[in-house]
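Example with several molecule types.
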Amino acid sequence: MMAPLRFRGGGFTIQPKRHTGWIAGLAVIAIWQGASSAGWVSPIFLPSPAGIAQALADMALSGQLWRHLAASLKRIVAGFVLGGSAGLAIGLALGLLSHVRAAGLPIISALFPIPKIALLPLFILWFGIGEPSKVATIALGVFFPMAIATYSGVDQVPRTLIRMAQSFDVPALAIVGKVILPGALPGILAGVRISASIGLVLVVAAEMIGAEFGVGAYILTAGNLMRTEDLLAGVCLLSVLGITVGFAVSAAERRLLGWRQ
Amino acid sequence: MRLIVEGVGHRYGALEVLDGISLTVAEGEIVAVIGPSGCGKSTLLGILGGLLEPSAGRILTDGAPPAGCLNPFTYVFQDFALLPWRSVAGNVAFALEHHRLTAAERERRVAEVLATTGLADFADALPKQLSGGMRQRVGIARALAVTPAVLLLDEPLSALDAQTRELLIEEFLALWPRHRTTAVYVTHNLDEALRLADRVCVLSRRPGRVREIVAVDVPRPERDGARLASLRDRLWRLIQDEARAADRERQPEILDAGDHR
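Resulting structure tokens for the full complex:
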């Protein structure tokens, strides 16, 4: 008896769907706006998308947006540069030097899980309530994921590549620069992605204590005054900031890591 | 350059992998080292090129390296050991960059070895864009670029399929008479050893000892299945029992020569 062979493969592969994301996003906003316009949700508890857009537009027109954004960005960039470069240096040392790893890894493992914002009061005592304590909090938050990502990135570099370089008598410093750093770059960029989002969290938290400007301060003030439209406008700013950083890291990965299989 | 191995032994902790290896490789000679897996072939090669310090014995050299030699002991690796972020030309140049060469001389060397290995059209390609055979040609080109005195080939064709392996053997046989570089060729493939070597050094299973050194006294161009059959039988009988016994052994946790820190 003849019968067609039953097909059993297929599925379990994710295909890119370009439009679905936009449609889903717009649908959520439309339903939200519809519910608000119909009066099903109170604008105090959940303002409408149109209201938030209006708040954002007002903020942009009055110049407040740029002032708050600039204050936050300045802190993030300063903290990121300080903490990131220290993390990169310590991570390299952890990855390359046995004694540093043996001594440093337990310390890092003990300090990494501390929510860095818990140390802000201490930093305020040390550095005062101004910028340095906020930058220090962000720098510390960025430092740990960068150090850990860098040292595991160094571990990922195939040892045969290092042996190869040694077999051609390449000097140790050149091996670090030409083999280990480029080989660890995927790990390092993954660390940049994580620490950027941590920086965003910490800047908001830090700005909720003793800051006049900054997105965090703006959100706190709006919340205290029950201006939920302004509050959510600030949240939107944070979301845009996070997405922008994500895109920037993705672009860097495409540019710098095109050699990956 | 002549290479003299005197009573070389090596152990990884309590595990003895090589014992009392003595061997002389004459100038312009190709010696193949064969033996069952885990017999310390790669460890021996690591010792020969100074990547690994032997626990016992010593290595001596006799004679001057060829004119223009930048790296007397030069490896070709089983897994190619190419920097994935560098182009073909960049990988070859990597072996030259730390030497005091004029830019013109460096470019001349790169262009020359790319031409001899048939890679001239692939100078800008990344390793990921190349087949296994082409990748190993890059490994060979890189080794030739430094004009080695002794070539150390660590199972250079093991990662390739049978057809590619055949092609590369033929190319190697065509290339080799030009420079007549002294070479040690580690393999577990009897046919490769018989096609390429002047002498075949058979190692026992762990701890590797020299069981016998067999001269292949058929001129290379005349080596075909029929002429080599009796020699092949003899070698196979030598390693058969060892290979069987090695195959049934539990694998100890050893770091091979490439992984040993």
